[in-house]
Design brief:
304 residues, alpha/beta, five-stranded mixed β-sheet, 11 helices, 5 strands, 38% helix
């Protein structure tokens, strides 16, 4: 991906943006769905019936895609001369396209744990006591990969570094919720490491499960060193870039973090992916966004 000025020169006006969307939607040429029907290049996409110039949408995609920290709606509103609610809608519609593909599960050796986010406690706090109803349960699974000579002793001198990860917001730390998350994230037969929580015990039928009692959490970082770094990173990202996120919208933000994390060495590709998803997958409405709808169902699988 080029620099911002070169990018905006490429999409210099509405006509250039419309031509780009047509190429993304119909790469093999337009095929009429029925004689006598009219078609809009934006119909049924994220840009459907937008009153905001497409050039500003494209600029928003560049800003979101090229900053590895992500950008807030307040930042977009200021930089693109938009109303805050318009910038918020644009950011969430673009963010909606960032999700992992289930056909690429985690494999190898995987650390799995859960932590709470939000509420009145400190954002870095861990533990399973959910006395505050505003807390959200966040589960992460991450591949642990042997550190290369260049990476030295690895994370916390564990001799391992992080591979790909999966994150989810769950209703509770039950066997059904945690088991469903792990089975959807990891390849059957993978080696998984968890703490001694009983909710993980049922995974032994699908995985090589190593359950390690942490002794009340005092040695948690020694048992699961990589995943605790990830929890710290995602919470710092949520509170630093967005100054905190409500429980209603947290799943969408964490999916963005997950997608960015797994492509942390491919930042340059993210803008083109955002635009391709925005042009080719079904849209999500303003009301659905406000209500916190996630719409994780049957959507077209796209290469990315």
């Amino acid at each position: 991906m080029s620099g911002f000025l070169t990018f905006m020169d490429r999409y210099r006006d509405e006509a250039a943006c419309i031509a780009a969307l047509a190429e993304l939607r119909w790469p093999n040429g337009f095929i009429c769905a029925g004689c006598g029907q009219q078609h809009s290049v934006t119909a049924g996409t994220v840009f459907h019936r937008t009153r905001t110039p497409l050039r500003k949408w494209f600029a928003a995609a560049w800003l979101i895609g090229q900053d590895k920290r992500g950008v807030s709606a307040l930042f977009l509103a200021r930089e693109l001369a938009l109303r805050y609610d318009t910038a918020w809608l644009m950011a969430h519609k673009l963010r909606h396209g960032l999700s992992e593909r289930p056909e690429y599960p985690l494999h190898g050796l995987i650390e799995i744990d859960e932590s709470y986010y939000g509420g009145r406690g400190k954002p870095e706090s861990r533990g399973r006591g959910r006395s505050d109803p505003n807390k959200s349960l966040m589960a992460i699974a991450v591949e642990t990969v042997p550190a290369s000579p260049r990476q030295g002793e690895g994370i916390k001198k564990s001799r391992f570094v992080a591979g790909s990860a999966r994150i989810a917001i769950l209703p509770a730390a039950t066997a059904a919720d945690l088991g469903g998350f792990v089975r959807g994230a990891a390849k059957p037969g993978a080696r998984i490491i968890t703490d001694g929580l009983k909710s993980y015990d049922g995974l032994a039928d699908s995985f090589r499960h190593y359950s390690i009692v942490q002794g009340g959490g005092e040695n948690a970082d020694a048992v699961l060193p990589i995943i605790h770094v990830l929890f710290s990173n995602v919470k710092t990202w949520l509170n630093g870039t967005f100054h905190g996120v409500s429980a209603k919208h947290l799943p969408r933000y964490t999916r963005e973090w997950n997608y960015r994390f797994n492509r942390r060495r491919r930042i340059a590709d993210l803008t083109d992916f955002l635009l391709r998803r925005a042009a080719t997958r079904p849209t999500i409405t303003y009301r659905q966004l406000v209500d916190g709808a996630q719409i994780n169902g049957a959507l077209p699988a796209l290469t990315g």
